[in-house]
Design brief:
Bound molecules: phosphoric acid mono(formamide)ester
Order of helices and strands: HHHEHEHEHEHEHEHEEEEEH
Strand order of the largest sheet: 7-6-5-8-11
Length: about 375
């Protein structure tokens, strides 16, 4: 395909089209793209911006980024090389499988370039170098930084020296905002009506959390983003080993949102009521990991509501049994696979590279 040829949005890329029975990429993204143009003015708000926490996003932006990601998942645009000439730095001072690799895949598939610190101990940090100084170096070496770090205040320290956009890929027990975008992208593909401002036919969701959001940054960011969709949420049930699972970052926003919620440690009494279950068992305490809430386990014989979906940021321990992988409840593969496209949507918006995309795609 040449730059002058137009590309129909319904031309599904063969490499992305899964077999009919594949659990990996269900549901298909086309339902979320929708007939209306994706609002370019909303996506352009992200040009040159950093993304450190969910509070930087509003519902309209999450929906626009998700619809744009669904478009990118539905068509083949790599030939247009829309990130050509842009260099992304992935700086990981804490272990990662999905986040670093999906960001790098997202950039490389659109012809961006990547330089990577997969293990922060190989940098000058080992000799005592400050993050402020590393930030100053990043200005010269790249166009955007994606950082993960064990310490919650690491973002502010890096930013003291930084003048290029920064994306938070997880900061200690702080937040993981692009994981929340991946989570909600998966949910919006599953139920495109969640993109509406008000629920269709009064269909609201009962959200369940198996975990402790205050100590689990992915769960915290998921819940904070859920509050942007509060009109679609009937109730939130948090099933946790901890009596106060929210912590200070969440307690205020959840009260302010006015969504009914309850905290319990009794999983059996609530499981069969839940439409969406978000689970995790790796908590971040101080600067180390700890298994928490791992007694709340799900498998194919669990008493799940028909049609209910399970999300998990992964990595999983034994709380999420592999027997669930081949069931209708598995939305976690969709969540993990879709991460590439939501991150592509974010890159194209941050770099304002819409002019490099083919004509005739529904951006308006
Ligand atoms: N979801 C997530 O943050 O996974 P990684 O730790 O593998 O990046």
């Amino acid at each position: 395909m040449t730059m002058n040829e137009t590309l129909h949005p319904n031309r599904v890329a063969e490499r992305l089209e899964p077999p009919e029975d594949s659990m990996h990429l269900r549901p298909r993204p086309a339902g979320l793209v929708g007939p209306e143009p994706i609002p370019l003015a909303v996506l352009r708000r992200y040009a040159g911006r950093s993304l450190l926490r969910v509070a930087a996003l509003d519902r309209e932006e999450v929906v626009a980024l998700s619809r744009f990601a669904a478009l990118l998942e539905s068509i083949e645009i790599s030939e247009y090389r829309p990130l050509s000439g842009k260099l992304v730095i992935t700086a990981f001072f804490e272990a990662s499988t999905r986040t670093r690799l999906s960001f790098e895949s997202a950039a490389l598939r659109l012809d961006g370039r990547v330089i990577s610190i997969p293990d922060g101990t190989t940098t000058g940090v080992r000799k005592g170098e400050a993050l402020e100084d590393i930030g100053e170096m990043f200005n010269a070496y790249g166009d955007l930084v994606i950082m993960r770090h064990t310490e919650t205040d690491s973002l502010e320290r890096l930013q003291r020296g930084l003048r290029i956009p920064l994306i938070n890929a997880g900061n200690g027990s702080g937040e993981h905002p692009t994981q929340a975008l991946s989570d909600w992208y998966a949910l919006l593909k599953w139920r495109p009506d969640l993109a509406l401002e008000t629920p269709r036919d009064g269909r609201k969701l009962h959200l369940g959390i198996l975990g402790t959001p205050g100590s689990m940054r992915a769960v915290k960011s998921f819940l904070l983003m859920a509050l942007l969709f509060r009109e679609h949420i009937e109730r939130i049930t948090v099933i946790s080993e901890m009596a106060d699972p929210f912590g200070e970052d969440l307690q205020g926003p959840i009260e302010l949102a006015g969504v009914p919620y309850e905290v319990t440690n009794d999983v059996q009494s609530h499981l069969s009521e839940l439409d969406v279950i978000y689970m995790n068992s790796i908590a971040f305490l101080g600067d180390s990991y700890r298994a928490l809430d791992s007694r709340y386990k799900l498998d194919a014989s669990s008493d799940l509501k028909p049609g209910a979906v399970v999300l998990h940021p992964l990595a999983r321990l034994d709380e999420l049994d592999r027997s669930l992988d081949a069931t209708e409840h598995n939305l976690y593969w969709t969540q993990a696979h879709g991460a590439v496209f939501i991150r592509q949507a974010l890159f194209l918006s941050t770099f304002n590279r819409f002019g490099r995309l083919p004509e005739n795609i529904p951006l308006g």
